[in-house]
Write a structure and sequence with these properties.
Number of strands: 12
Strand content: 5-15%
Structural class: alpha+beta
Helix content: 40-55%
Largest sheet: 6 strands, antiparallel
Radius of gyration: 22 Å
Distance between the termini: 31 Å
Shape: globular
């Protein structure tokens, strides 16, 4: 049976220096782990039998209309610039126009080496594939812009990493696009103005047809990124590798490497095993995204006829970004404590709670959810500290129309906690996918009370704490 995917490929029509055309490297024994049938329906993909799905989404079979390619880009990685990166273990199968009329990329991740692999094997092992599947779908359910997971496939081949041989897998990822800040940096660094202009025109057509000029594009990307990062903060999410090559022009969360959701609140929390200096710590994410937007602005300058004036205009836009993030943060966290339109005075109330949470080693998710049922104080080592704050909070929300409804929509009861994700991966490596399926089912409805999933809302015991997640797949 042939898998029918309505491809309509526009990126492949760009100049050849934007990518390398190639097919995936076939694997030995592909077996379908999971196929996201609901997402497939939104994309207009006709569901095929499992064997066909496994062949296509392992990269063993090229579906009709696909034009596989690996995209090239550059990027700042932990502050250091790499003039050429690219899809080292991924291939863009092509694009579809979904039922809402939006163009979406379909990409294989873990499909074998490309010219951009930099001595890597181009493969992924099972753990990171399942992590990205679970966490990206959880982010979608939380209402935050993100790439999605369409399929996961076992390859039947081992992948060798520092710890030895691990079962191989391929993830199929769906994105509004895979255009990155690093894509613009690639052409700007080469002073390829023709390529930079083609990329700008393509980006405008695909994502921002209403904009007028590079300054307007910069302002719109800043707006989306400010809202996205404030959204991350509001659910305790730490991306872990906010490199410019992992910053999407669409404003989506992309590349779930050493990411995690916090348990105990700590503003300097780091989960990435390679982030030795805390560059991408929880509370540093707003500063990093401003820095990344400054790099985007720099890459756009060559497109401007008066570059001195452009530098002045772009600098003003970037310098205004912290205030924009602060506004989005205040809006998001205001809702978490039941205030629909939080003021700057309300921001002080929010900050006071967070300070007390850090001092009292309170669980981030359970504290905010506990404001609904009176259990928030149970999260604190010093419950008097919470009670003192709560007096001021009750007085403030008494002026709100329906704070409970606001809080219920802003505070998930369940998140993909790191220890549960790791336990799920361990089970899957042993051949048991039941924990994976259960996580996906529960996390699809994060704002609902689910009594039968109470164990998934529990913070880790000391022996279960996961201190670091790893970048490589």
């Amino acid at each position: 049976m042939t898998l029918q995917i309505p491809f309509d490929n526009s990126y492949a029509a760009l100049p050849a220096r934007f990518y390398t055309r190639q097919t995936a490297v076939p694997v030995r024994a592909p077996r379908l782990i999971r196929f996201n049938a609901a997402l497939a329906g939104d994309l207009g993909i006709d569901v095929a039998d499992e064997a066909t799905l496994a062949q296509v989404f392992a990269g063993n079979a090229v579906p009709p209309g696909s034009d596989p390619l690996a995209q090239v880009y550059a990027g700042h990685q932990f502050g250091g610039f790499s003039p050429q990166l690219g899809d080292g273990r991924a291939l863009l199968l092509g694009e579809v126009v979904d039922r809402a009329g939006h163009r979406r990329d379909i990409q294989l991740k873990g499909s074998g080496p490309t010219p951009y692999s930099r001595m890597g094997d181009g493969r992924a092992w099972l753990g990171p594939v399942l992590r990205e599947y679970v966490v990206s779908e959880a982010m979608h359910a939380l209402g935050l812009p993100t790439t999605r997971a369409l399929a996961a496939v076992e390859t039947g081949e081992p992948v060798y990493r520092e710890t030895g041989g691990m079962p191989g897998a391929v993830l199929t990822r769906v994105a509004a696009s895979h255009l990155r800040v690093g894509t613009f940096q690639y052409f700007a660094a080469r002073r390829d103005i023709e390529g930079l202009r083609a990329l700008y025109d393509y980006t405008v057509t695909r994502h921002y047809p209403q904009i007028e000029g590079p300054a307007h594009l910069l302002a719109e990307v800043i707006r989306r990124q400010a809202k996205l990062v404030a959204g991350w903060l509001s659910v305790g999410f730490i991306h872990g590798v906010m490199n410019t090559d992992n910053t999407a022009i669409s404003g989506e969360t992309i590349d779930y490497g050493p990411c995690a959701f916090m348990d105990t609140y700590h503003p300097q929390q780091v989960f990435s095993s390679i982030d030795a200096h805390g560059r991408y710590a929880y509370d540093n994410q707003p500063h990093v995204i401003v820095w990344n937007m400054a790099q985007f602005a720099t890459a756009l300058v060559p497109l401007m006829p008066d570059q001195d004036a452009a530098i002045e205009e772009f600098t003003a836009l970037v310098h205004a970004m912290p205030d924009r993030i602060e506004t989005e943060w205040r809006r998001s966290f205001g809702r978490k404590i039941g205030i629909e339109n939080a003021s700057t005075e309300d921001a002080a109330l929010i900050a006071d709670l967070l300070t007390r949470m850090a001092e009292g080693r309170a669980d981030f998710t359970n504290t905010f959810r506990g404001l609904l049922d009176g259990t928030a104080r149970d999260q604190f080592l010093d419950r008097d500290a919470f009670d003192t704050w709560a007096e001021a909070w009750h007085a403030r929300i008494a002026r709100e129309h329906d704070p409970e409804t606001v809080m219920r929509a802003a505070n998930p009861s369940v998140i993909p906690r790191n220890h549960r994700v790791e336990q799920m991966i361990d089970a899957a490596v042993s051949g048991d996918y039941a924990p994976f399926e259960r996580l996906l089912s529960v996390l699809a409805n994060p704002f609902e009370d689910q009594p039968d999933a109470a164990d998934l809302t529990r913070p880790p015991d000391p022996a279960e704490v996961v201190h670091a997640t790893f970048c490589g797949t």
